[in-house]
Design brief:
The complex is a heterodimer of chains A (88) and B (399). By secondary structure, chain A is mainly β. Chain A has no helices and 9 strands. In chain B, 38% of the residues lie in helices and 18% in strands. The C terminus of chain B is likely disordered. The chains are: A mainly beta (88), B alpha/beta (399).
């Protein structure tokens, strides 16, 4: 099974360490998540559903805001994560 | 803890080199061809060619002190300084500073000392003697507390902050535990880590200065580039890094977990400061690597995720790669494969110990991959960033 690394228990994303295809089951340590996007190694996958403007955590620290709702198992990158909140 | 030693070259000013090179520098880029000619005439002389000069003095506030500090680096047995004669950055002033260290040097000014041909002849004679004399130097056993260890990352990917940078941080903490010094730099890649670093400062004044330096860097980056994430390159993004905060949280791992004991400006020598020192330098790798060696580092460990062929002409740079893919693609450019954490299942401690073993060999004279390959790139000295709105918009920060 493909694996992903979680840097800190409070994180909302993990890092996949093999190239992932949508539908792959990913071992993230204490649970298994089904990827819903193709995700290249070593990019980020959401560990949970994240709502727009929610802070995204990696290394136990904020790395930015969700620009749109993100589903568990989805690829998290420039299209849905940014340094600033989305203005409503 | 066992206090370890290495064999290095003891210099007259008490610093210890791990290499014994003769370098040749020009005070202005107009003189680069002369520097090249001297290096061609005398094998072993390392030319440090740069693109600065008197015409761009406004953008080159660090030229003179970078040349002074670099010539003083203990990896250099002797230095040859060639001036043109009309520049602000005077060869005489540089020579005067080098003389204070007791290091052998030769300096000449083309307009004053008979033109290019005569200067090349005199410098060639001096260089031959320096090379001969350098061969007579013997390595002596010295404590590791004499080491100033530079840390750098370039072409980062999302694994740099997970494998290679923590391994560098492990080595950094170990050097400090041995009484030595480590340098963390690339301020624009510490944006978002100002609290983490200032919380580790050994005094409230230092904490304030560290916080303010990172904050000013962010202001400057925003003014010049228009957004704070300018430090995230297209290559970083392909490698899985999305925001500057994410990149910085990976970069800061190069500094391990030791307390922050000081902060120095670009090309300001660290001298006998111990512990983890922050060097206020740009995140542009060729300039920050030069800044590390100008600060007095004898060696730098440089992580890369995407792969980077950057080293330094006269001081060793150990390249550590964050992931197995890049190691496969660029193995001949890499000293240590931190991707072994993923492929061999080794722990971070095991990787860190591998790095320490390799570093000790390099300190004792083993050539790094880039030394074997004869790396001889240019010397890139930090320039002043000019905000779009003009000089007055950023109060006191410049590089």
């Amino acid at each position: 099974m493909k694996r992903a690394l979680i840097m800190n228990p409070t994180d909302s994303v993990c890092v996949v360490i093999q190239d992932v295809t949508a539908g792959d089951e990913i071992d993230v340590g204490d649970m298994i998540i089904t990827a819903i996007s193709d995700i290249p190694m070593p990019h980020k996958m959401a560990l949970k559903d994240i709502s727009v403007n929610e802070i995204i955590y990696k290394y136990g620290a904020p790395i930015g805001y969700a620009l749109m709702p993100i589903k568990k198992g989805e690829w998290v990158h420039v299209n849905n994560l940014g340094p600033d909140k989305v203005e409503s | 803890m066992k206090i370890l030693t290495f064999k290095g070259y003891l210099r007259p000013d008490g610093q210890v080199g791990i290499r014994n090179h003769v370098v040749c520098v020009a005070t202005a880029s107009c003189v680069n061809s002369v520097v090249s000619q001297i290096a061609r005439n005398v094998p072993g002389v390392i030319p440090l060619r740069h693109s600065h000069g008197c015409g761009d003095i406004m953008k080159s506030p660090y030229l003179k002190r970078t040349l002074i500090s670099l010539c003083k680096n203990p990896n250099h047995y002797a230095a040859i300084i060639i001036g043109l004669g009309c520049e602000h950055c005077s060869a005489d002033e540089i020579a005067e500073e080098i003389a204070k260290t007791g290091k052998p040097f030769f300096s000449a000014v083309i307009q004053r000392n008979g033109g290019r041909k005569k200067v090349v002849e005199a410098a060639t004679e001096a260089a031959k003697k320096f090379i001969d004399d350098a061969q007579k130097c013997k390595r002596e056993e010295v404590p590791l507390s004499k080491i100033i260890f530079g840390t750098e990352c370039g072409g980062s990917d999302a694994l740099s902050g997970i494998t290679a940078n923590p391994a560098i941080g492990y080595v950094s903490d170990w050097i400090i535990s041995q009484g030595g010094t480590s340098i963390l730099t690339e301020m624009a890649e510490l944006i978002g880590c100002e609290k983490i670093l200032s919380d580790r400062a050994t005094s409230p004044e230092l904490a304030k200065e560290v916080y303010r330096t990172v904050e000013l860097t962010e202001t400057l980056v925003k003014k010049v580039a228009g957004f704070s994430s300018a430090g995230v390159s297209p290559g970083n993004q392909k490698g899985g890094i999305t925001t500057i905060q994410e990149k910085s949280l990976g970069c800061v791992n190069k500094g391990g977990i030791s307390p922050v004991t000081g902060i120095v400006d670009y090309a300001e020598p660290i001298e006998d400061k111990k512990g983890l020192i922050i060097l206020d330098a740009t995140n542009y790798d060729p300039e920050s690597v030069a800044g590390l060696f100008a600060a007095g580092a004898q060696v730098t460990m440089f992580s890369s995720g995407r792969g980077s062929p950057l080293a330094f002409p006269s001081c060793p740079v150990i390249k550590i790669c964050s992931n197995p893919k890049s190691f496969e693609a660029m193995g001949s450019d890499i000293d240590i494969n931190a991707g072994a954490i993923l492929t061999e299942g080794i722990s971070l401690e095991e990787l860190g110990e591998r790095c320490i073993k390799y570093l000790l060999e390099v300190l004792n004279g083993k050539e790094t991959v880039y030394e074997k390959n004869g790396f001889c790139g240019p010397l890139c000295i930090a320039r002043k960033l000019i905000p779009k709105e003009g000089f007055d918009t950023v109060p006191c920060k410049s590089y």
